[in-house]
Amino acid sequence: MISALQLLFNLSLIFGTPDQSSVLIVSGQNNHDWVRTVEHIERILLDANIFSVNISLTPEKEADQKAWDDWNPEFDAYDVILLVYNGELWPERIRTHFEAYVSGGGHVLVQHAANNPFPGWEAYEEMVGLLWRNADAGYGAYWDEKDGLMRISPGEDQGAGHGPLHDWTITTRDLEHPIMTGIPKSWLHPHDELYHGQRGPAQGLNVLATAWSDLEFGGTGRHELMIWWTQFGEGKILTFLPGHLWGDQEDDRALRCVGFQTLLQRSAEWLATNAVTIPVPENFPTAEQIKVTGE
């Protein structure tokens, strides 16, 4: 007969301990390697020792209606929903549930290509603010060193894109935000896609970090937004663009970057608790030196 202590231990493995924040990673479709990306992100969160993590996978692409009917993620049971999803539009009942979760005070972390899907889902586009869309799909935005956040009118300039994988510098733009407190002003991030030209409603953008999109690497010659958050009802949505991994890509340093991992953990904690206790590690990258785990 199982003891009460063992039962509590088993339940803690499933639901986490009372002092942990709960995170649901949602994936299942993506043009990127979502399997390895989810493995990385789950381990990164668990390594912080303050999160319980579960995973919900959508049906595969072009699955039948029954498969979608059977997918019932319990958003309300979690402090944070972390999206590693870029695929087909969710059923209306799931979209309605998701909107109610966020507007009622639930929080969402949108990772890399999760800002690509759902064209036409107006609430999601309002939540994220800037998405992978063409130039006429909404406003663009970039960061100006003198004037701060700047907007580009719909139809002007270029739409979403990226250059080749390369190392680039991330710059903190809100030094006082809990996520960014103690983070170096600028630091090197390895071998990643640098998104540019994102489009959308671009309202209520609170910019935490940007990256210089170098013309030499197919960029825009501007500081592009990399991490920002918005408010939707009572909930917060934080978009976190670093962290690219193709299916045939062996070099996964973007996900093993100490800076990436630290900011991902701190972002999830802030969304869950509105505070940050996770320290900035001593081996955090600098403006001159990349730091990755596993080497």
Decide which structural class fits the backbone.
Answer: alpha/beta
From the alpha carbons, calculate the radius of gyration and give it in angstroms.
19 Å
User: What is the makeup of the main sheet?
Assistant: 9 strands, mixed
Q: Globular, elongated, flat, extended or rod-shaped: what is the shape?
A: globular
Average pLDDT: 95
Order of helices and strands: HEHEHEHEHEEEEEEEEEHH
Proportion of residues in helical segments = 10-25%
Low-confidence stretches: none
Which percent range describes the beta-strand content?
25-35%
Tally of contiguous helical segments: 7
Question: What strand order characterises the main sheet?
Answer: 2-1-3-4-13-12-11-8-9
Number of strands: 13
Task: Please report the distance between the alpha carbons of the first and last residues.
Answer: 45 Å
Structure characterization notes:
The chain is of the alpha/beta class. The chain contains 7 helices and 13 strands. The chain has helices spanning 4-15, 34-47, 65-69, 92-103, 122-128, 253-256, 258-273, and strands at residues 21-27, 51-57, 80-83, 107-111, 140-144, 148-152, 161-162, 166-172, 186-192, 195-196, 206-213, 222-232, 235-240. The strands form 3 sheets. Strands 2-1-3-4-13-12-11-8-9 form a 9-stranded mixed β-sheet. A two-stranded antiparallel ribbon has the order 5-6. Strand 3, helix 4 (92-103) and strand 4 form a beta-alpha-beta unit. The termini are far apart. The model has no long low-confidence stretch (mean pLDDT 95).
